[in-house]
Amino acid sequence: MWAIMHFVVAVILPLSTLAQQYGMCTAKNGRNGECISTKSCSSSGGVSDPANLCPGDNTIQCCTYGTCKNTKGVAGTCQPTSTCKGSSDPANLCPGGNHIQCCTAGSAPTGPSPSKPVNTMLTGLADILRGAGVNVVEVAGWKTRGHGVMSSVKGIICHHTAGAATGDYPSLAAIRDGTSSIAGPIAQLGLGRSGTWFIIAAGRAYHAGNTLDDSIYGNNNAIGIEAEGVGLPATETGHAHWPEVQYQSYVKGVKALQKAYGVPTARVLGHKEAAVPKGRKIDPNFSMAEFRAKLG
Ligand SMILES: [Zn+2]
Questions:
Q1: Interval 209-236: pLDDT, tens
Q2: From CA 160, how far away is CA 171, in angstroms rounded?
Q3: How many angstroms separate the alpha carbon of residue 271 from the centre of ligand 1?
Q4: What are the recorded GO MF terms, alphabetically (predicted)?
Q5: How confident is the model at residue 108 (pLDDT cuts 50, 70, 90)?
Q6: Cβ atoms 254, 260 nearer than 8 A
């Protein structure tokens, strides 16, 4: 099973590299794009223009990627960085590869350039969190654990477990291996009461269920974090049910993940916010408004 997954990844990667050799284009909709195969275009979330705008055979068409808002909220279009006349925002706001970014007429947002994972395992998770200065435990086998690869990282969903009342991370086995009703992994990351992060899976995890927008918050596109908690009722003010050391580590870790993958704070949601229908989930039982304010 895993040998097959790796084979598929190995085939997809060179194709996206090859795609560049046909150059850039402007589609009939006026948007800048790239000449790539219709198959690569649709699999990375773009739209192919069938007009004869590209070299190569009929399967090579001008692929464009729609509209976007940059991290300052300015409207733009998703296009190759090389065709952007204004500034490209490196945050993960567009479909396609790393070179497809949100292009606006305004000035470029400052900050580090995050990576933009596409159809891959998130094998950088442990290093990203260690870099944030939090305690990290790498759970054996995490780099190959998952329900397939992640399509992208566009959102982060905060959860809490409803596990045992004592111990640092008593839910580890359930989050890693699943329960009688859901197969593991149930989240990529766990957070213990001591503030220690458990790196459980690098691939897709079954944490989100139906969401407001699965292209951002669904299991294919959002990292799930299950923080140990006993499932006390949701509160909209403060974080009274949480040990301070755990809460502060939650903030630190999520900040580091945002920075590494270019996820804007507006796309860090609690499961209770992302889940549909509304009211389906109550986690996490702290104020997400306060949490996002601390993310900056
Ligand atoms: Zn949840």
A1: 999 999 999 999 999 999 999 766 666 7
A2: 10
A3: 5
A4: N-acetylmuramoyl-L-alanine amidase activity
A5: low
A6: no
pLDDT, tens digit (0-9, with 9 covering 90-100), for 12-64: 444 444 445 789 999 998 999 999 999 999 988 899 999 999 998 999 999 99
C-alpha of residue 163 to centroid of ligand 1, in Å: 12
pLDDT at 211: 97
Alpha carbon of 187 to ligand 1 centroid (Å): 9
Q: Is pLDDT above 80 for 206?
A: yes
3-class SS of residue 32: strand
- CA nearest neighbour of 152 among 92, 88, 75, 196: 92
Q: What is the largest CA-CA distance in the chain?
A: 65
Q: Listing from the earlier edge strand, what are the strands of the sheet with 24-26? A: 24-26, 32-37, 60-64, 47-49
CB atoms within 10 A of CB 270: 23
> Would you state the pLDDT for residue 173?
98
Tally of residues, the chain: 296
Domains of the chain: 22-104 (no CATH), 125-295 (3.40.80.10)
Give dist(CA 182, CA 24) in Å, integer.
44
Nearest to 119 by CA among 274, 265, 5: 5
- What's the angle, vertex CA 255, arms to CA 225 and CA 131, rounded to 5? 95
Buried b (16+ CB within 10 A) or exposed e, 60-83: bbbbbbbebebbeebebbbbbeeb
CA atoms of 6 and 11, how far apart (whole Å): 9
The 10s digit of each residue's pLDDT in 56-79 is: 899 999 999 999 988 888 899 999
- Residue 208 CA to ligand 1 center (angstroms) comes to 7
**Residue 84 burial (C-beta neighbours within 10 Å; 0-12, 13-18, 19+):** buried
Helices (H) and strands (E) in the chain, counts: 8, 14
